[in-house]
Amino acid sequence: MAEQIPLYPVRSAAAAASCKRAAYFSAAGPGPGAERSSRYQLEDESAHLDEMPLMMSEEGFENDESDYHKLPRARIVRRKRGLEWFVCGGWKFLCTSCCDWLINICQRKKELKARTVWLGYPEKCEEKHPRNSIKNQKYNVFTFIPGGFVLAVTIMREAIDEFRRFQRDKEVNSQLYSKLTVRGKVQVKSSDIQVGDLIIVEKDQRIPSDMVFLRTSEKAGSCFIRTDQLDGETDWKLKVAVSCTQRLPALGDLFSINAYVYAQKPQLDIHSFEGTFTREDSDPPIHESLSIENTLWASTVVASGTIIGVVIYTGKETRSVMNTSNPKNKVGLLDLELNQLTKALFLALVALSVVMVTLQGFSGPWYRSLFRFLLLFSYIIPISLRVNLDMGKAAYGWMIMKDENIPGTVVRTSTIPEELGRLVYLLTDKTGTLTRNEMVFKRLHLGTVSYGTDTMDEIQNQLMNSYSQTQSQASGNNASSTLPRKAQSSAPKVRKSVSSRVNEAVKAVALCHNVTPVYEARGAAGETEFAEADQDFSDDNRTYQASSPDEVALVQWTESVGLTLVNRDLTSMQLRTPSGQILTYCILQTFPFTSESKRMGVIVRDESTAEITFYMKGADVAMSTVVQYNDWLEEECGNMAREGLRTLVVAKRALTDEQYQDFENRYNQAKLSIHDRTLKVAAVVESLEREMELLCLTGVEDQLQTDVRPTLEMLRNAGLKIWMLTGDKLETATCIAKSSHLVSRTQDTHVFRPVTSRGEAHLELNAFRRKHDCALVISGDSLEVCLKYYEHEFVELACQCPAVVCCRCGPTQKAHIVKLLQQHTGRRTCAIGDGGNDVSMIQAADCGIGIEGKEGRQASLAADFSVSQFKHIGRLLVVHGRSSYKRSAALSQFVMHRGLIISTMQAVFSSVFYFASVPLYQGFLMVGYATVYTMFPVFSLVLDQDVKPEMAMLYPELYKDLTKGRSLSCKTFLVWVLISIYQGGILMFGALVLFESEFVHVVAISFTALVLTELLMVALTVRTWHWLMAVAELLSLGCYVASLAFLNQYFDVPFIMTVTFVWKVSAITVVSCLPLYVLKYLKRKLSPPSYSKLSS
């Protein structure tokens, strides 16, 4: 084949040499394959909205009231028909519809249905239910069939992660549990558990599947479970066994009864459940309603006693699995930009090959020549870029986790460290993120008198006097009757009135909650089973457990003023007075707190007086409509909220026996209904919530995290726009925003008025448009209305604000806001949270940061980066985010330059020899060039830094430049392309001009100059030298010099030992590099970057 390729060198002196070496130049080896274009594409799903035109100028603001009448009618668009419709896009619609139909057929999901579960007889189940095994793997075996050597590093990393997930799943699925059968207990694997099985779960053991709680070893008929791995809350939850099965004498009696459980179809909501328990072999049949307190969800842990439950949902149908969303594979902005540049390089490769074939004149089998040119110029495609970047990202992650200034930081997603340097929007939770989630009782307001932290001793004295008077009245009234009339009818009457109100308020706070005192076990018993008289009520041994830290703070406060909660079970509660007397209350009903009702209540009977009282507490918006008329509640709630306190309104209502019996009958009937149970139960409870006596208003403070203020100020100076998304009330959120300096003291705050309709939203948006440079505060309900009618206009206005506070936001709404910012602005977003309600927002953001806080580790585990304190975020972004982005940008462009320069040399070589498709370098030279000769210096760029960490922290304004993407842009890419063309042309033409008798000298001179040029270019690119960089340069140079002795098949070894070789190589290298050094020096002198001004 070599003889068929005509070689006509430009210089006649080289004719003989070129003919001799024709065979050498004709052995072209196939180059590696080109990496295809990116899979990741941004889809613009712009929906056609009938948007109302908002006023864009100041002229129209004169007539605000007429705005509502200017609402345009919906536009009527004439529909195209027939052939016109088909040609104008109908064919696309038909194809899309057919594809969607096929996808729906292939991905049709099994319909979820309610089921009847027979106790202990899984074979009676009519339907086939999924296996109770957990599968968290993302891939199957065929995913890891290697697609090429270049992807080996990435594939190996994913395979290792996947194998670890498989091992974790196997460990969970292999856990053994005791299964109760007719023949006794048998051991069964978690993955082999079926619907209908009776499973025994010991203390501190994970619950394997969703179950209905039948029995417990605890005498009270209840147990505690830990739910931190399900909902992110660290407080224990109280669960109640089905009373019918709890009363059975022994475990084996579960098989002697004929009973079943009716369970609703599997659903996402972990906070609700509707079902019934029916025992058919009794006369009459026993029907018992089941609610959330009778359930044990999978992935929770038993915290007390041993429990027995009947399995109702397994595998994919469990609440924990249904709530596990498959997070999107996050791709960094840098990777997307590199994908676009790689596409451009691929087009350049094809264009260059076509030009070469065209200049050849399409002679002979031109398609073979085209294919050969594609292989020869394939180094234009930066094949090794993916491997270099993956290794660089791993190095950045290691540096972040080893940083002593941010201890406890964990990198959970190693593919997007550069995103930390490109963020524009920062969306943060409030409770537990900006605040500590450590509640401290601060204020008690009775309407006419208010008590703060400095006057709590007055409450303590009044309680002591009140209960001592009550005790003396119980022993006899003789002393009080002998007092002078004047003493009875004067000032003490007022004190008695205030004292009784304080007494009622403190007693209501001490009774209206779901807190349970827990006493640690002592000795070897292992169970906290005390006799009534022998219970250890010592304060040192008691801790409080509740689903909310607010509740614990309230009960701890009542203890501090003298009224202590010492014991609680399902049916009773005991309080200890300041004098040591034990007050016992029978719990008749409990109404737990829900996000819909925003309040909780309890009905108790005082054992000493038989009085029945309904206590209720909740948010002011929910309680203001159920309490008697007053003129102070709304004002004082606003005052406390402005102080940053979380407020709760406490009220009571006395009930007669007849009133309670009527309520209980209606309530039990509503709880047994299968359809619309929640609505019916709520309607019955609301019948009690009328004309309640307002007792007090409480204020609890949630303290700020350490160094929140300077951190937020640093991030704001860095150019980030910070949005706070919280479920708290508007006043509290506004106060925390100001106290944390999220909103500066000098900034105005625009509170978006509540809107419920399109017209109201229109007027309010126009009013907001007039404001300039002010922070926005908006509630979740108003936000929903604005997004429904004016999504684009609202986001456009909100993005112009320096800060935005969204209060009363749910988890789904938080994630929706993140996606809106991504779609409308195209900028990178970061979400920060600490609880399970923040997981959706964290997973939706381009970069998710979780904080390990009081609410558990769910947010931390779901995030891309995990930190221990909010203040660490500043250094994570302005130092590590900057370094990661700058280093990856330099590394990527240098890898592309490395391929472009050798492709340029190949193009010059082929052009000189009449566009012959023969390789310039062969065999080991090409492999060595991309590996041992240049790999270490190029990769050492991951150690480079343009600004010292101290300087980046001192001047966060430097971060603003990163968001513009100037380190890797079309401009910098074109600069590197021009550098590559210049250097490749100089190296190749210089070698052709300077070689004399032997053509093989061209290879020796050009390749040596190429390697030296690459090493010098790395030195030119470096901004701050690290000792490892110098080692990498010397190591690569040493490897090349040492390998010259073994490359006699490519080089003329005697020639490379001569002075002629040295001066020719030096001359070509100097000509290729010196102008670039001069240009770099002049640019730094004439137009220095911002960081260099600070450094000097």
TrEMBL record:
Compositional bias ranges of the Polar residues kind: 466-492
Residues forming coiled coils: none
Gene3D superfamilies for this protein: Calcium-transporting ATPase, cytoplasmic domain N, Calcium-transporting ATPase, cytoplasmic transduction domain A, HAD superfamily/HAD-like
CDD domains in the cross-refs: P-type_ATPase_APLT_Neo1-like
Transmembrane regions listed in the UniProt entry: 296-315, 344-363, 369-389, 895-917, 923-943, 973-993, 999-1020, 1027-1047, 1053-1079
Keywords: ATP-binding, Golgi apparatus, Lipid transport, Magnesium, Membrane, Metal-binding, Nucleotide-binding, Translocase, Transmembrane, Transmembrane helix, Transport
Ranges where the record places region Disordered: 466-498
Membership in a protein family: Belongs to the cation transport ATPase (P-type) (TC 3.A.3) family. Type IV subfamily.
Record-given protein name: Phospholipid-transporting ATPase
Species this chain originates from: Delphinapterus leucas (Beluga whale)
